[in-house]
Amino acid sequence: NAADNAARWRRDFPLLSTRSHGQPLAYLDNAATTQKPRQVIDAISRYYKTGNANVHRGSHDLSNRATTAFEQARSTLAQWLGIDNAATLIWTRGTSEAINLVAQSWGNTHIKPGDRILLLQSSHHANIVPWQLLAQRTGAVIDVIPLQDDNNVDLDAFRNLLQRMPKLVALSHVSNVLGTRYPIEQMCRDAKSAGARVLVDGAQALPHFDVDLRLIDCDFYAFSGHKLFGPTGIGGLWGRQDLLESMPPWQGGGEMIEHVSFTHTDFAGLPFKFEAGTPNIAGAMGLAAAIEYLKKDRAAQEAQEQMLMRHALSACHQVPGFEALPGGDQPVALFSFLLKGFHQQDIAHWLDQKGIAVRAGHHCAMPLMQSLGLPGTVRASFAFYNTLDEAERLAHALDELVCSQKSQIDVATVTAPTL
Ligand code: PMP
C-alpha cells in the first residue's frame, strides 16, 4: 500500500534521516537537486572499488569492462527515453552543457544575422544565456513567448511569433519556478511546421514523469542527472541523428578523434565526436542506477508526490497571507509562493531554522520574475520520498512565522510610548 511504499522509498535515501538545526531534515528543495538512493551511491562506490579504469582505449580487461559498463549505462538511459539509437545520446555535465553544445555547434553553423530565436518567458537562464551569446556572435534576434495570467503558455502569441519564421525555438518541458507542464508535443509540432528547429529543456520534466522522445517532435532534448536522483556532473543531450552527424565538434581533445596530424583531424562518429576527454564514467553508472531505481515504481511515485503537493498547498492556504503562484493546467509537484509582509529570503531562513529546506530567490529565471513584477519567490519542491508530516511542517512553520510577527506588532502597539 501507499504508506508502506513511501516508508520503503524513504529508507533508500540515507540523507533523509539526517538532521538540520537539530530538527529532522524536511528536504523540499528537490527542484534544485534531488537526494540519491543507496543504489546510486553503491553503484558509484562499486565502480571505484572494483571497476575503475579509463574507457574506450583499453588494452586490458579492466578497461574493457569499464567501457562495456559505461556504454551499457548509455543504453539504459536511451531505452528509458525511447531513443532507438544510443549513439544519438551524448553525455554532458548536465542541461546547461547540453544547451551550450547545441548553441555552439549547431548555432554557430546555422544562425545568421537577422535570424530569429524564439524563447519562453519562463526559461531557466541555462536556456537563455547560451542563445543570447549566440545572438551576440551572429547578429540574430531573440523573441519571447509570453505566459497568460494563469501562467499557462500563451499559445496564440506563440503561433503569431512563429509567423516570424524563427530558425530555432528553445522550450522548457516544465518550469522550474511555476511547475507548469507545457504542451510540448503540440508546441513542437507547431514549431516544426513553421520550419524551426526545436530544443526542449527537460531538466524539470524527467524527475516527475516518463518521457518518450518518439512522441515528441523535437530536434534536441537536454537533461541533468542530479535532478533525477543521480549524481552531479552528468546529464545528456539527445539529438536527431542526421543533425548531430552534420554538426561540427564543439570541444577538441582525446576520445573524439579517428586520426590526428598537425595539419588535419578526422573526427570520431557519434556519440564520441561530442565527448572530448575522459568522460564522467562513475557519473554515468550512477545515473543508470538511478534510472533502474525509478523504473520500478514510477507511477506510484508520481501519484505520491502529487498527493503531497496538494496536501501541502491546501494546508498552506490556511495560513493568512499565503499566496501560491498558479502552476498552469497540470503542474508537477512544486509550487512557488509568497507570504504577505515577508521577504522571501526571511521566509526561507525561518524555515531553515525549523529544519525545512526550500529555495528562495529568482530561481535562475530573472526574466520570468521581471514579467511577474516580483523580486523572487519561495519554492517548495517535492519528491516521492517526502512525507505528509513534512508537508504539514511547512504549513505549520509558515503559520508560526505569521503569528510571531503579529504578536510583535501587538506588543509594539501596546508598549509604544505615546509622544
Ligand atoms: N533548466 C531548468 C528548467 C532547470 O531547472 C535547471 C536547473 N535548475 C537547468 C536548466 C540547469 O541545469 P544544470 O544546472 O544541471 O545544468
TrEMBL record:
Family membership noted in the UniProt record: Belongs to the class-V pyridoxal-phosphate-dependent aminotransferase family. Csd subfamily.
Protein name listed in UniProt: cysteine desulfurase
Residues of the full protein shown: 12 to 430 of 560
Cofactor(s), by name: pyridoxal 5'-phosphate
A GO BP entry: cysteine metabolic process
Domain of life according to the entry: Bacteria
Alphabetized GO MF terms: cysteine desulfurase activity; pyridoxal phosphate binding
Organism of origin: Marinobacterium stanieri
E.C. number: 2.8.1.7
Catalytic activity: (sulfur carrier)-H + L-cysteine = (sulfur carrier)-SH + L-alanine
